[in-house]
Design a protein that fits this description.
Elements (H helix, E strand, L loop, with lengths): L7 H7 L4 H9 L4 H17 L8 E5 L5 H6 L5 E6 L2 H10 L6 E5 L13 E6 L8 H14 E12 L4 H16 L11 H11 L2 E7 L3 E7 L7
Parallel strand pairs: 1-2, 1-4, 2-3, 4-5
Antiparallel strand pairs: 5-7, 6-7
The protein binds S-adenosylmethionine.
C-alpha cells in the first residue's frame, strides 16, 4: 500500500490548489457543462434512492467543489458540504456563492466529529469511497448512522469491481501502478462489501444495486437504534 494514501488531508489538499486542478481530480475534466450534466445524474440517483424532501438537512461527505451541492440545495432545507481538503472547500464556497442554505465543514478525513448526533436527515457520499481504505469507508458508514436522525437515510457509491466496466478500469490501474502508484488511485467495491457495511452498522431497509460502472447502496437509520 502507498503509505501516504491514508494521509487524506495532505493528499487532497495538494491535489486541489487551483480550481482547475480541483475540477480535474473531482471529475477528470474541467468542462462546466459536462460537470453540470454529471451533477444532474447524481441528483437523479439520490432522488431514486434516498429521496430528497423540502424539510431535509442533507450532508455530503467529500463534497469537493460542490458539484452536487449546487443541484441539491434548491430541493432541501439545508445542504452541508464536508471535505477533508480546505482547498476543495474554498473552491466550493466560491462556486456556491449566493446560495443561502448551504454551509461547509472541514473534517479530519476519518470522521464527522464537528456534526452533532441525530442532526441530519440524509447523508450521502459519492465518488469518494474509491479513494479510501476499507476501514475508513466503514468508519464513515458508522458516522453517518450517528449523525442521522432516526428514520434518516444514507447513500454511498463506488466503482464496481465485479462489472465488465469496473474491471476494465481496474486493469488500467494495473498498468498505472507498475509505473507509479498515486496515493489517490481508485480502489473498487462490490455488492457484498456494501451489504456488509450497511448491515453491520445497523441500517435497515438496505438496498444495494448496480449500474454498469457503479455499485451503490442505501439504507435507513432505525427509529429505535439498538444499544
Ligand atoms: C473525486 S472527488 C468527489 C467530490 C464530490 N463528491 C463530487 O462527486 O463531485 C473526492 C473528494 O473526496 C475528498 N476526500 C478524499 N478523502 C477524504 C476523506 N478521507 N474524508 C473526506 N473527504 C475526502 C476529496 O478532497 C475530494 O473532494
Amino acid at each position: 500500500m502507498n503509505e501516504s494514501r491514508r494521509d487524506y488531508k495532505t493528499v487532497w489538499t495538494g491535489l486541489s490548489g487551483s480550481m482547475e486542478d480541483a475540477y480535474l481530480f473531482v471529475s477528470g475534466y474541467t468542462d462546466e457543462e459536462k460537470f453540470h450534466s454529471a451533477s444532474e445524474d447524481t441528483l437523479g440517483i439520490l432522488l431514486e434512492t434516498v429521496g430528497l424532501r423540502e424539510a431535509d438537512v442533507v450532508l455530503e461527505i467529500g463534497c469537493g467543489v460542490g458539484r452536487v451541492g449546487t443541484v441539491i440545495s434548491p430541493f432541501v432545507k439545508e445542504w452541508i458540504g464536508c471535505d477533508v481538503s480546505p482547498n476543495m472547500l474554498r473552491h466550493a464556497r466560491h462556486r456556491l456563492i449566493g446560495l443561502d442554505n448551504v454551509r461547509f465543514q472541514e473534517i479530519s478525513g476519518y470522521d464527522l466529529k464537528p456534526i452533532a448526533d441525530a442532526s441530519v436527515d440524509v447523508v450521502y457520499t459519492t465518488v469518494v469511497f474509491m479513494h479510501l481504505e476499507e476501514w475508513d469507508r466503514y468508519a464513515y458508514v458508522l458516522e453517518a448512522l450517528r449523525v442521522l436522525r432516526p428514520g434518516g437515510r444514507f447513500y454511498c457509491d463506488n466503482m464496481n469491481l465485479a462489472s465488465d466496466e469496473g474491471w476494465a478500469v481496474f486493469e488500467e490501474g494495473l498498468k498505472l501502478i507498475r509505473a507509479k502508484r498515486p496515493p489517490q488511485i481508485s480502489k473498487f467495491s462490490t455488492v457484498p462489501e456494501f451489504e456488509t457495511y450497511l448491515q453491520r452498522a445497523g441500517f435497515t431497509d438496505i438496498h444495494v444495486a448496480t449500474r454498469p460502472m457503479w455499485v451503490y447502496g442505501w439504507g435507513t437509520k432505525p427509529r429505535a437504534v439498538r444499544a
